[in-house]
Design goal:
The structure is a homodimer. Chain A is mainly alpha-helical. Helices cover 55% and strands 6% of the residues of chain A. The first copy, chain A, has a three-stranded antiparallel beta sheet with strand order 1-3-2. In chain A, helix 1 packs across helix 2, helix 1 crosses helix 5 and helix 2 packs across helix 4. Chain A is globular and about 70 Å long. The two termini of chain A are 22 Å apart. In chain A, 32% of the residues are buried. At the A-B interface, helix 6, helix 7 and helix 8 of A face helix 6, helix 7 and helix 8 of B. The first copy, chain A, binds a DNA duplex through helix 2 and helix 4.
DNA sequence: CAGCCGGTAGTCAAGTTTGATTACTGCTAA
DNA sequence: TTAGCAGTAATCAAACTTGACTACCGGCTG
């Protein structure tokens, strides 16, 4: 599972109707181009692909008012809405190391009811714990981890990062159970996209200093 | 940077001369198919690509002794050796979240001298610390992180995972400075590939239970 | 001894990602 | 007034990834 579909569905759904550049801007507003594959090519590709699959409805629209080639507006369909929630739930349970998917799910998290989110996150933690013991039991030789040599450090890295991920998840659960944020069915929904003509305060994202990416 | 090239170069270099299936087996021995894109298609693709780019030398060889189509053997060139060390160093400094690249580098780490490894890892930590303060300064609004709403949790996740990554790296530095493992120029090099006809004890990798990947 | 199963070795089509490039507009400085 | 620049919007080729598939050999089984 890649994060791009969830991100794009989120943006289109929030707008009701959106063209590619709008989606692109929203995702930049989220900083998604920093931590996911949400770059122009991928976004336009995902829109077309999902339109072909019936998750989005494409409307050919007159040339834009602001220069550039004619643009296509997209609307989410019922199938798309269903897929959106499927991906969102999956992103919260899946305990592998891909931060982009989890980040995307995190951004959409308030579209689910609070109780369900807590349940999904607990499933996530349980999965990580099971994975941890499976890995350590399977890979650690009987005569101690030192026998693996430096290769053991790879496993060490995985386990460390799983542990740290589980710890973070537990913290999030606590915050949510403690009443943080506003979830589905709890009044005024939060708006996570830029309005027409609104400026993006984070446009350039994280300042690039000697970029290692 | 993807991990596949580093992994493939490593395997070919260790063998002196290797065909695709051999590389594939070595990487499975490492468990690399679990945590990277080291799957058949990618491996054969990488071999061909790198041969085209002069990093590997391809030898057409008679049909294999053990059935199956004729196979191609590859040998690393000087350019390939150079690229191998370049990628290896890069994988150790780069502080973004991609675990596969770091894992691949970790596997090859003993091909560098101990002192250089320590230096590279310190650079890694420094980079993470700089990144952390850049992100927090840039993204946290003046009126407190609470203003971001649940979106702040994305940043929280990044920062948490950067901190945990830095902590892990510091631990590794300590172990290496403390004399762990055998590095380049310190005698008997460690052998990380399967010999001819040797069996892979980890063939199936991590047991898949209710796979979430 | 025919059939088929498991291991060896690699190919392929379909989909995704990347980074560069195109194409158009309005503004503005010389 | 016109050349150029910044911004808007999208496309494209090339590279990469995925998962399924082909093809071939040898041994075992009924």
């Amino acid at each position: 599972m890649s994060a791009i579909r969830l991100l794009v569905l989120f943006a289109v759904r929030q707008h009701g109707r959106a063209h590619g550049y709008q989606v692109r801007n929203d995702l930049e507003y989220w900083g998604a181009h920093e931590w996911s594959t949400a770059k122009p090519g991928s976004i336009y590709h995902a829109l077309k692909q999902m339109a072909k699959q019936g998750l989005l409805l494409a409307h050919e629209v007159a040339p834009s008012t602001a220069g550039g080639p004619p643009r296509t507006e997209y609307e989410i369909t019922d199938a798309g809405r269903e897929e959106y929630f499927r991906l969102l739930r999956e992103s919260l349970i899946t305990y592998d190391q891909k931060m982009d998917v989890l980040s995307a799910g995190l951004g959409s998290i308030v579209d689910l009811p609070r109780a369900e989110v807590v349940e999904l996150l607990k499933e996530r933690v349980a999965g990580m714990e099971a994975w941890r013991s499976a890995v350590t039991e399977h890979y650690v030789p009987e005569d101690g981890p030192a026998q693996l040599g430096h290769i053991g450090e790879i496993m060490n890295l995985w386990v460390h990062s799983a542990d740290s991920g589980a710890e973070w998840t537990r913290g999030l659960i606590k915050r949510i159970e403690g009443g943080a944020y506003t979830f589905a069915g709890e009044g005024e929904p939060w708006v996570g996209v830029l309005g027409e003509g609104e400026e993006n305060p984070y446009a350039t994202g994280i300042p690039d200093e000697g970029d290692t990416h």
